């Protein structure tokens, strides 16, 4: 049985003080999470260390929102997988559509980052998804298939099984529009098929696939009950302890 992963991507929100306040609220409001549900928060780089320390003794995991693919070097402003690993960071979001859209991230750099994260035993959450225009033209599956094929290129099966895939239709991110649960599940099932084509049935049934895009406490229950969806990558609704915990509770 696949585990459920509920991840909060705080994006470029919360300074250290606000991050610690949110962690305290999460800690005080949360009861024991269901053993089949993994919970993760991904603060901004500046809050990572403080949040990591504040989460000690809890079963909430911590992840980064991005990293460079090189271990070190003259890459001003970048953070390496070695730095993240040394800090005890367990997950990293790779290829978020905002990185692809605003920071020229390509499938080639996404592929390098995935390989680097896996090499350093940091679990990557790979984001894929189509634009509204691509969906309206009927090429959403082709788009996602290309991303999956290029992003997984050259990654062995034993490593690929550690990749979490987040299907995030770009038109549903931060817009209040969600894909219908049927649309989200159809794409999650299609992603499994792509993984089966690259690897095999075993891996396609094992890989964790999240949905992301305006997930909130009102739609989480329906989305999370879909057969091929194993969790959510939550943006806006993860910035308030109550709404994030409501989503986690629907994952039981
Ligand atoms: O990483 C999270 C996604 O981009 C979704 O963001 P959102 O829940 O604010 O739409």
From TrEMBL:
Pathway where this protein functions: Carbohydrate biosynthesis; gluconeogenesis; Carbohydrate degradation; glycolysis; D-glyceraldehyde 3-phosphate from glycerone phosphate: step 1/1
Any idea where this protein resides?
Cytoplasm
Q: What is its main location?
A: cytoplasm
* Molecular functions per Gene Ontology: triose-phosphate isomerase activity
Enzyme class, spelled out: isomerase
Q: Which UniProt keywords apply?
A: Cytoplasm, Gluconeogenesis, Glycolysis, Isomerase
Q: Where does substrate bind?
A: 9-11, 174, 214, 235-236
Q: Which HAMAP family would you find in this protein's record?
A: TIM_B
Protein name as it appears in the record:
Triosephosphate isomerase
Q: Which GO terms describe its cellular component?
A: cytosol
